[in-house]
Amino acid sequence: MGLTKQYLRYVPSGTFNVIASGDCNCIHVSLNGISGRYVAVGACEHVIIWDMRLGEKAQVLPGEDIVVSQIAASPSGNHIAVGYVDGNINVFELTNSDVVCVFAGHKSAVTCLQYDEQGHRLVSGAKDTEVILWDVVSETGIARFSGHKGVITSALFINGKNCIVSSSKDTFVKFWDIETKHCFKTLGGHQMEVWSAVLLKEERYLVTGSMDQSLRVWKLNWTSDSKDEEKLVRQLEIVKLEETDNIEESSVLQCHQVGTLVRSGKGRVVNLVTDPGQSILACHGTDSLLELFSFCSDEEAKIRMNKRVKKQRKKLTKLKETGEANVETTEVPELLKLSDEVKRLTLVKLNEKLKSVSLLLGTTGELRLGVTLANNTVELHSLKVSEGNEVQCLKQITQPGHKKEPRCVAISSDNLAILSASADSIKLWSRANQSCLRTIPMPRDRPCSICFAPGDRHALVGCADGTLLLIDVAAGRVLEPVPAHTGECSSVGLSPDMRGCYSGGSDKTVKLWSFELIPDQTGESKAKVLSLLHTRTLELEESVLAVKISPNNKFIAVALLDSTVKIFFLDTFKFYLSLYGHKLPVLCLDISYDSNIIVTGSADRNVKIWGMDFGDCHKSIFAHNDSVTALQFVPSTHYFFTASKDGKVKQWDADTYDNITTVYSHSGGCLSLSLGAGALHGASCGADGALRLLARSDGPLVLGDTDERDDGLATGEHHAPVPGLPGINIPTKKTIGAEKAADSMMECLSVGAEYKRELGSARGAPVQAPLLMAAYNCATPEDFLVETVKRIRSSDLEEALLLIPFSAACDLVKMLPKLLDRGDNAELFCRLAIFLLKVHHAPLVANQALLKHIIQIQAKATMRLNELRDMVGYNLHALHWLRRDVEAADAEQLFREATTERRAKDKRRRTRQAIKRPIVTVT
């Protein structure tokens, strides 16, 4: 075996500048029992919980490489579910930010998440058109609902009926029964995509938003709630609603459109959100307008109806007296209309386009609105619902990030500070804690290039209008705007002797500048300030895209728009070499420390390595899947980093032409890259708005070694229904974790069988246990199997059982009776037995040798499950007794929902007034 070359590993060391990603929703969360103060948002691959009172990060739920697409908080406030663009769902515990469980079932980005009212189940929808129901307690999938033909936009629990309602871009809204795992109702009343849906007013109304300006309101009538004498009345009411509707008496659910709410905003509906109590509806589109609607209680709706009817009767009486109305005109009917049920609240006009909103209604009637905007901002607003006052902005978080995506970045020579520039501002950051130290408003057009001046107290910024800004970083102000070029100033950098700088622009010139100290023109201080003196100009035939002076101060290389790189002598500007071979313009270049190698990166996705002596191309590397935007050598080496619009930052060896490693990826294109002194640290910025840091570690990296990551990443293959059993379409998918679990189970069975054979052949003589069993401290194969199965992640167990061969499944069935006899882990092995019998039922039952084991499993599993049921029931009644004892001692009722009595009273009242109850009608 030949010698391998070792490199030092570069690792990601931080992500900042992102306050809230626009592609993820925001939610209110409770920390330490406090609500209305904390808002959780997605920030690239992390979830940040902002303290809206202090304007600081209260907590960060860390991710790895995958961007967050959806988040949901459990009703108990202990957990938060996070969906990612790869289809995985992580459930975090808020107290310690640990991952409780991982659900892998979707093949593409998660688009909606919701907990049920107890927080025990989770429903998710994704771009793969699937809706999956998860059990958070047992950490497994319950069911996969397939039927939609478009992206799932909403998935909601109907808690009172054990159902799920989902909406999709295929224009349909479907109702799914959790027990039977089938769709029992489909709404086809939409002509275009359904972008969002919410349930309101104790799950009695469904509101859907589409491409138009109308929100459709549907009334849900469950036939199981109706008594026999009430069914006829309901049929008559429905006929009044819509005479064209075909009424199915056998249908479990009758869903009818009872009206529309007209939006004030333009364009399609982006999102519909309701508060946990389902009384307030928030709607926003593609603009900056947030609309709020309040669904009144039954008593308030009746009062509003009586006022309206009284007013209409007075008006009708006046018209009859004046003769404008027919005397025989009938009375105004006392029918409840949608206008009586819903009232419009104050419109909220925000400063930027709205991306997401979260509602929280307090007990005092105060509505808290948490919103994220397109300009990387999180805001908290307050509104008194009863008084209808104007919305008050409580907090706005803008300082820790650029409002627009950063275009260029530079790191100081001492690796302590980072400078980033976007179209709105220039910010100075501390590398150690990634906090913003200075913010300078951008006085000119968008920035194109940036670098620190010698001493790191000043910086140079090239702008799109050709201006070269000289900035005092310490004071946080612009010292002087220098009109350097008539076109875009695409490149700026320091000369190797640190006495001056250079700039290149689209006006076909490269200009050399020298630093000088001049008296302060503003007269604010007597100290001299830094300025630039133009010394020389290099005229060229094409627009300049990138410039670099060789470290030996001998050559200047210029990348031109004609896809060539021209090299000139620096002292005389005499032509030296022309490097041609790229098919598209060169966007970046760099020269090695010894001035022997020049590397160019182009929009044709290639990186070419050239010799400076003859201009020959040493190697052409297809480096990225998109344009190479930034390139820089590691000082004193021939290693270099590249960044591209495909988002990846890679490290290369210019001597061996190897790709050393891919450090990390931006979720959008990577626009700029900068390495500090000694390449100990680096920084990059991307179209995802994130500034990312990389750091050199002491860990060695050997080419060819791959990181075996046990993080449950999907292999991309999805299980089809099991052959011969079309009803089995399990909610999970095959992952790396499931494959490793299957391998571990098969290895466990083979080691145990071999150990049994050795015991049988030894005839009572002591036999040393295998090393694997000894490592697990197991004395018998059964103990070894118990320890192996216990270490398998719950969400991977069923997939692992599908991956093992039938012979291994038979061996498991033979061992299950002994495992069920043990008593411990009975629930786990009952689940294992049920799934094996479900998948391999026919061959297992047909095998006479296994039939006796199956009969034993049936008896022992039933006994163990009865024991577990008795234990749970005993504990439950003991807790009830403790609660009653505490209530009696304290003379007050604890653990009681505030809405229980009101709901019971409303149900009794609706039963009494079933015949004469008014209903919602469309006028």
TrEMBL record:
Q: Name one Pfam family in it.
A: Beta-prop_WDR3_1st
Specify the protein name. Small-subunit processome Utp12 domain-containing protein
Record-linked Gene3D superfamilies? YVTN repeat-like/Quinoprotein amine dehydrogenase
Identify the stretches annotated as WD repeats: 103-144, 145-186, 187-221, 482-516, 579-620, 621-662
Q: Which organism is it from?
A: Arctia plantaginis
| Record domain Small-subunit processome Utp12: where | 781-883
Q: Which UniProt keywords apply?
A: Repeat, WD repeat
Q: What's in the GO CC field?
A: Pwp2p-containing subcomplex of 90S preribosome; small-subunit processome
